[in-house]
Amino acid sequence: MGADQSTRIYNVPIDEKKQGSSQIMRHPNFQKDLVNTPFPNIKNIQDLILHGYSLDKNKEFLGTLNQTTNQYEYITYDTVMTQAKSIASALQNLSLLKEAKDYKNYDLKLVGIYAKNRAEWIVSDIANALYGYTMVPLYDSLGPESISYVLGHSGITTCYCSTPSIQTLSKTKDLHELKNIIAYDEVPAELQDLMKSRGITIYKYSDLLAKGSENILPLPTLTPQTIFTFSYTSGTTGNPKGAMISHKNILSSVAGHMNSDVKFVSSDIHLSYLPLPHIFERFVNVSCWLVGAQVAFFSGEITKLKDDIAAAKPTILITVPRLLNRFYEAIKNNLNSNQGFKKMLIDYALETKLQNLEKSGKNTHMLYDAIVFSKIRQVFGGRVRILVSGSAPISPKVMDFFRIALSCIVCEGYGQTEGTGLATVQTILDSKSGNVGGAVSGCEIKLQDVPDMEYLSTDKDENGNPMPRGEICVRGNSIFEGYYKDDEKTKEAIDEEGWLHSGDIGQILPNGGLKIIDRKKNIFKLSQGEYISPEKVENIYVRARGVQEVYVHGESLYNFCIGIIVPNPEVIVKIASELNINETDVATLCQNKQIIEWYLKSLNEFGKKEGLFTFEQPQKIYLEPVSFTVHGCLTTSFKLQRHIAKVHFKKVIEDLYSQQ
């Protein structure tokens, strides 16, 4: 697994360098032609589903946790196909689809969905893919205001819903054109009456399955350009934009995934818990449809994810840094609680495996895996063979820890909604953490100069070797079709040559690997003229002891930035004990001056160690006892919505800047 860093294993240049950007780069195995479909005969997602179905229609496919037995119960691919055809036929036969022909030349048949990940979600998604309908997912954690915006923007008339989602809709002032709800669950009589009073008809999902089965419609002929889904972007800077993702887009990302070292096989089990409205989780599910891999759905509560993993025993674990960091911190705290000989053995095992990983890329050890790391593997079900982290940069230290603790493939990928979730991924030839690998088979990348931030494609390292830096641009079939009814924003995202401008700043390493180093957007300038990238600081601080969430804020009127920190509730109590503070209430501890001073000093020391300049580090902080999620400041992919955080913490920000 070891890789000579002088060997270029990623991002091979295919042209001459041009002024203002790096060379165009592709996957080493796909330099001549990009591969945009998993198999030549698959032209759309309908073809993909029929392929997966043909492999073994009686194979267990979608799993739901039985809360009584704590065992997953699966339905077969054949059952899923029968239900998908039934529900799709019912939508058409009962005229429940919104036909939208008022934007360009698109002829869309829209239906919404508002529920957490569950088997019915995927049945409904497969139904749409088979019949060429377009799904419009509503984000499960959005409040009534944003839900209303999406309803109005898309104009959907029918929406699949869970009961909690119907309750949220009942509190939404303007439901626009929404007239029908397809309820996955039993709906309380009072809630039914309330929605009826607002002109909403509620259909039972089970009733529509039965109704549709009476008159199954034939499958239509679809094109690669058929719009599979709208994916409303996180809206970190305002109202969400409706990215149109086509069958072509999805196939390109699935092909990129299946031509990588982390491809799925039919015996795999994927635990689906990252929100399905987010395109990353969505195309991962479609990859499962292709090979007939099992999909187990989490119980619905992220706080019970550890229990769901133990019950599902997944072979594939797709995650994001925020969650992986929590597991890392909990496991490390547990390991550090040991004493005496046991603690010495654990430390030596960790040190030995990390050294082996560094020297040769080997992540297994016959003795230590059996007596030290087997228990950690059992925490994750004992069968994980691939762990992939995406959505945001993650600490190399965390990545390396899981490589040796789980003895499996652990890698990072990179992508965004507008690129259908996947642009680059690491290979098992690269045992070095700290990069997101190289372009997948269906796209090419380049770095565009950003002179204002002093990131240039002509940059060199301290030894004078080429070290191109700049904004990451991606081109290929995975690039979305555009924002629904927003040509201006589409033109801002995709240039005339078809390049998607990501807004992320990347650097090409000696082995060709792409490293995310900064963000073009979300920067602010302090009064002395220094530019700060808050996400860079946040990604470092979130790894510091006792930190769960971070929001860094700065304004041009002041010469310093400030930080709002959500402490890890368990760790802050331990810190208080170490400081001889006899208090266990987290809210009270967050107001304790001694605790605040400890956090400020600890964060600044950690930031300095990680290479932050003094001006990049907050000079004042506020400890917030409640998660940003509760305040509605995080997207469903756990990214900070700065415009919402700024408004929510307006008084806190004013107080921090007013303190002398």
Automatic annotation (TrEMBL):
A molecular function (GO) term: ATP binding
A family per Pfam: AMP-binding
InterPro entries: AMP-binding_CS, AMP-dep_synth/lig_dom, ANL_N_sf
Location of the AMP-dependent synthetase/ligase domain: 70-484
Protein name: AMP-binding enzyme family protein
Taxonomic lineage from the root: Eukaryota, Sar, Alveolata, Ciliophora, Intramacronucleata
Keyword line: ATP-binding, Nucleotide-binding
SUPFAM superfamilies reported in the protein's UniProt record: Acetyl-CoA synthetase-like
PROSITE patterns: AMP_BINDING
Transmembrane segments: none
